[in-house]
């Protein structure tokens, strides 16, 4: 029997940070199942889903996190999970929502709040700020993978988001996620 856990970790970017974190899992007999790792500012961030042998005490993993902080300067936190839930439920499909406009406070909040009010589940969200090649103005770009009922079309979702786009003065487009069906 195994337990499932999520670990979040981050530390000042440097060569070897991924090896330091994954070594802890490897040395404790854990199996890395899914992950997301990226550089944010000058911090390297990791989100790891892994399974661990039942014999691995729940005190051992937090102790390993404290050791990472002390020895390697990596802040790490672990949370136990329940049984795996199948996200590919019948009657749902995934869409990609793309948002682009002048960088401003509240874009993620307003779009995500509207999606929640429409009962649309966010599966993945990535965003960045880039300079416009023409003017050098800060442009905010966000891509959100959402899950919705098959009874709702991309056009309907986009039309529903038009009020948010107008309020924020951003462009929002929605398309079917071709990687999932």
Characteristic terms for this protein:
28% helix, flat, 8 strands, alpha+beta, 44% strand, four-stranded antiparallel β-sheet, 181 residues, 4 helices
Short description:
The protein has 181 residues and is an alpha+beta fold.
Task: Give your account of this protein's structure.
It is a single chain. The protein is flat. Helix 3 packs antiparallel against helix 4. The strands form two sheets. Strands 2-3-1-4 form a four-stranded antiparallel beta sheet, with helices on one face. The protein has a four-stranded antiparallel beta sheet with strand order 6-7-5-8, with helices on one face. It contains four helices and eight strands, in the order E-H-E-E-H-E-E-H-E-E-H-E. Strand 2 and strand 3 form a beta hairpin. 28% of the residues lie in helices and 44% in strands.
- Which whole number gives the mean pLDDT? 91
Strand-pairing-aware structural class: alpha+beta
Distance between the termini: 33 Å
Annotation, overall tally of beta strands:
8
Main sheet attributes: strand count, strand direction, barrel closure: 4 strands, antiparallel
Secondary-structure element sequence? EHEEHEEHEEHE
Envelope shape: flat
Strand content: 35-45%
List the uncertain runs: none
* Number of discrete helical segments: 4
Strand order of the largest sheet: 2-3-1-4
Percent range of helical residues: 25-40%
State Rg.
Answer: 20 Å
What order do the helices and strands come in, and which of them pair?
Elements: E1 2-12, H1 17-27, E2 31-40, E3 43-53, H2 60-72, E4 75-81, E5 92-102, H3 107-117, E6 121-131, E7 138-149, H4 154-168, E8 170-176
Helix pairs in contact: 3-4
């Amino acid at each position: 029997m195994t337990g499932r856990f999520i670990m979040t970790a981050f530390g000042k970017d440097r060569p070897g940070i991924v090896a330091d974190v994954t070594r802890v899992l490897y040395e404790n007999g854990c199996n890395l199942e899914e992950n997301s790792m990226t550089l944010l500012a000058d911090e390297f961030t990791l989100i790891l889903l892994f399974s661990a042998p039942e014999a691995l005490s729940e005190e051992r993993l937090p102790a390993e996190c404290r050791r990472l902080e002390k020895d390697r300067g990596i802040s790490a936190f672990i949370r136990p999970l329940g049984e795996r839930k199948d996200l590919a439920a019948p009657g749902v499909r995934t869409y990609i929502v793309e948002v682009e406009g002048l960088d401003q406070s509240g874009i993620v909040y307003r779009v995500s709040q509207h999606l929640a009010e429409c009962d649309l589940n966010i599966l993945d969200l990535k965003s960045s700020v880039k300079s416009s090649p023409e003017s050098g103005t800060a442009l905010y770009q966000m891509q959100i993978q959402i899950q919705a009922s098959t009874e709702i079309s991309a056009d309907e979702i986009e039309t529903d988001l038009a009020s948010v786009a107008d309020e924020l003065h951003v462009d929002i487009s929605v398309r079917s996620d071709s990687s999932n069906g």
